[in-house]
Amino acid sequence: MDEKRFYIKIGNEKVAVSETLFKQYMKMQRQEQYRADRDKEKGLMYYDSWDAERGCGEEVCVDHYFNTEEQTLAAIEAEKIWQCVQKLQDQYQICHMVAEGFTEREIAELLGISQNSVHMRKKSLFRRLKKMLKKEI
Question: Residue 126: in which H helix or E strand, if any?
Answer without folding.
Answer: helix 115-136
